Amino acid sequence: MKLLLLSSLLASASAFAPGFGIVKSSALNAATGTKQDFLEASPYWDQSTVPVNTAKNKSPFTGKVVSTKRIVGPKATGETCHIIIEHEGKLPYWEGQSYGVIPPGTREKDGKPHSVRLYSIASSRYGDDMTGNTASLCVRRATYWCEELKADDPAKKGICSNYLCDSGPGDEVKMTGPSGKVMLMPEEDPKTDLIMVATGTGIAPYRGFIRRLFMEETPARDAYAGEAWLFLGVANSDALLYDDEWQAAKSNPTANGGKLRLDYALSREATNKKGGKMYIQDKVEEYADEVFTKLDSGAHIYFCGLKGMMPGIQDMLKEVCTGKGIDYDEWLGGLKKNKQWHVEVY
């Protein structure tokens, strides 16, 4: 009995921490008593039952923080935290959806309650503990630089991001959603290639994708036979998010040959072909022809993060089209019509 209890506790503890590698059902079954298929549609790729707006702004759900962990190194530009929240299975979601968070208190300007802030969910539908009762958020603490102080202005900071990054176990979080269908994965054809482009915390939905396809024993992983290609742009190596998980997933192709491919754009450590800083659009440009070919063959491309990356990427794709004698607007319109173009930027 003691041995069983210890193994259950170890499985549960490791599952709650980001970066724990491939999730094996045998270990988690001891802790949860469930398989990793109890939140699936029938068939698993059918999106007709995707949950939307289970909790609304006027009647939010109150979740509880399980843990908050800083996930960047000391030389990262800013602080980013991985926050696990208990929702008791009452606020189910699918990979690619977002939660709304309503920070406590009122606005200084008019005394009204704070408005809802949207955060992409950074876990699969099963949560980091595989029980289906938790969700994870990837949040960067928003601060504002003061030139006079030559430091962050303590009087100006992101209300919701600081609230979440300062939270601790047991703290209550008012939540709405889940919302959005734009970033869902197309799982009906398991051979579909996915191109995932992210800056900073825009990595969140892709963590859900990658865990579902490569790290958890789900029906989607059993079937996947495509290539999931992740482009992540951050300032430096210390700012890389979930790299240990990506490396584990990269070395663990699916039974049908599905694989993860990684490319990082480190703006303060690498230079582009023109000798300037290596931004995400520069890294994607290095593979412009291959990206174009994949899209022309039915791949889906996703963008999540700062909206400033979009003009550069679109200009690059337009240039490729011009070189091939293709009308860019018509080509892009075709991608959108076929639902291959997914954008969630801010």
Write up what this structure looks like:
Residues 1-15 form the signal peptide. Belongs to the ferredoxin--NADP reductase type 1 family. It catalyses: 2 reduced [2Fe-2S]-[ferredoxin] + NADP(+) + H(+) = 2 oxidized [2Fe-2S]-[ferredoxin] + NADPH. The chain is of the alpha/beta class and 346 residues long. It folds into three domains: 1-31, no CATH class; 51-179, Translation factors (Elongation Factor Tu (Ef-tu), domain 3, Beta Barrel), CATH 2.40.30.10; 194-345, Rossmann fold. It contains ten helices and 13 strands. The protein has helices at 2-16, 25-32, 159-165, 204-215, 219-223, 243-250, 280-285, 288-296, 309-323, 328-337; strands spanning 61-70, 80-86, 98-102, 117-120, 134-140, 143-146, 151-157, 172-179, 194-199, 227-234, 259-266, 300-305, 341-345. A six-stranded antiparallel β-sheet has the order 4-3-8-1-2-5, with helices on one face. A five-stranded parallel β-sheet has the order 11-10-9-12-13, with helices on both faces. Strands 6-7 form a two-stranded antiparallel sheet. α1 crosses α2 and α4 (204-215) runs parallel beside α6. The longest helix is centred in the N-terminal third of the chain and has 15 residues, at 2-16.
